[in-house]
Amino acid sequence: MGMSVLLTCQFLGEVIARGLTLPIPGPVIGMVILLIGLMVRGKVPRSLRLTGEGLLRYLTLLFVPAWVGLMVHFRRGQAPLCRPASTIPSGG
After folding, report:
1. DSSP label at residue 65
2. 88 burial type by CB count under 10 A (0-12 exposed, 13-18 middle, 19+ buried)
3. How far apart are CA 82 and CA 75, in angstroms?
4. What is the C-alpha to C-alpha distance for residues 69 and 73, in angstroms, rounded to an integer?
5. pLDDT at position 92, please?
6. What is the DSSP secondary structure assignment for residue 45, as one 8-state letter?
7. Angle (CA) 65 35 61, round 5°
8. Between helices 26-41 and 2-19, what is the axis angle to 10°?
9. Selection from 6, 14, 11, 12 nearest residue 53 by Cα
10. Nearest CA to 29 among 44, 38, 18?
11. N or C terminus: which one in the chain shows less Cβ crowding within 10 Å?
12. pTM score
């Protein structure tokens, strides 16, 4: 039940962001919808709490692909910060 609440809020956020062509990402709008719903309810349902705790437990694993991508780009010298830094000492 908790995961379905999270996914429903994200879906509603995506629909609102795309429907109104807002520059705000759909998941951010979805989290605002979730926050408002939790404030109206006054407490976090047990199923949502368990789902959130389970996701937070493994949150660091979600960043592994991003770090691997950055490491690969740094090794190749293709990272966005590497190019300007490498041209400054050589004079252009």
Report:
1. H
2. exposed
3. 10
4. 6
5. 46
6. -
7. 15
8. 130
9. 6
10. 18
11. C
12. 0.66
> Which one is predicted more confidently, 6 or 62?
6
What residue type is assigned to position 27 of the chain?
Answer: P
Which pLDDT score is estimated for 80? 58
pLDDT for 59 equals 83
Whether the predicted pLDDT of 85 surpasses 70: no
Residue 15 contacts by C-beta under 8 Å, 6 or more apart in sequence?
Answer: 26
Q: How far apart are CA 22 and CA 13, in angstroms?
A: 10
- Other beta carbons less than 10 A from residue 7's beta carbon: 11
pLDDT at residue 72 is higher than 60? yes
State the average pLDDT over residues 71-89: 59
Distance of alpha carbon 25 from alpha carbon 22, whole angstroms: 8
User: What pLDDT does residue 78 have?
Assistant: 57
Give me the phi and psi of 44, to 5 degrees please.
-95, 125
